[in-house]
């Protein structure tokens, strides 16, 4: 029976250890991504159409902001999650005990962006 657990007295002995101990050696994927985002690259500003040289992280942030200004719900949600922390699914006003669904908030924000009210 290959999937059965070893007896408790042998479970964590020095002879009963996995063949691969932990993650593979080398930098983690997060470390590699940070290095890539800190690189200097040439990019084209989507609004002014001019070419600039800057860090990749700034290009990603600029594109996220551009998408949010165009009314994309996912971009708006990501910006708010980064600024204020992730919003719970349902908000309850403590003074009036009114329950508000976060989808309605995001939908109203998208409408305001697309109508140019904000």
Strand order of the largest sheet: 1-2
- Order of SSEs: HEEHHEEH
Approximately how much helix is present in the residues? 40-55%
Report Rg. 24 Å
Instruction: Report strand %.
Output: 5-15%
* Cα shape: flat
Could you tell me the mean pLDDT? 79
Distance between the termini: 65 Å
Largest sheet: 2 strands, antiparallel
Q: How many extended strands?
A: 4
Poorly predicted runs are: none
Describe the secondary structure blueprint for this structure:
Elements: H1 29-37, E1 40-44, E2 51-55, H2 56-69, H3 73-84, E3 90-92, E4 99-101, H4 102-115
Antiparallel strand pairs: 1-2, 3-4
Helix pairs in contact: 2-3
Short description:
The protein is α+β, with helices and mostly antiparallel strands.
Plain-language structure description:
By secondary structure, the protein is α+β, with helices and mostly antiparallel strands. The chain contains 4 helices and 4 strands; from the N terminus they run H-E-E-H-H-E-E-H. The strands form 2 sheets. Strands 1-2 form a two-stranded antiparallel ribbon. A two-stranded antiparallel ribbon has the order 3-4. Strand 1 and strand 2 (51-55) form a beta hairpin. The model has no long low-confidence stretch (mean pLDDT 79).
């Amino acid at each position: 029976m290959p999937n059965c657990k070893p007896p408790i007295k042998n479970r964590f002995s020095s002879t009963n250890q996995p063949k691969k101990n932990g993650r593979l050696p080398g930098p983690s994927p997060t470390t590699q991504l940070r290095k890539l985002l800190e690189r200097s690259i040439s990019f084209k500003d989507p609004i002014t159409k001019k070419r600039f040289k800057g860090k990749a992280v700034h290009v990603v942030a600029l594109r996220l902001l551009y998408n949010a200004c165009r009314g994309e719900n996912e971009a708006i949600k990501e910006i708010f999650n980064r600024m204020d922390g992730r919003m719970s699914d349902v908000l309850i006003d403590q003074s009036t005990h009114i329950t508000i669904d976060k989808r309605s908030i995001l939908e109203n924000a998208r409408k305001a962006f697309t109508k140019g009210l904000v």
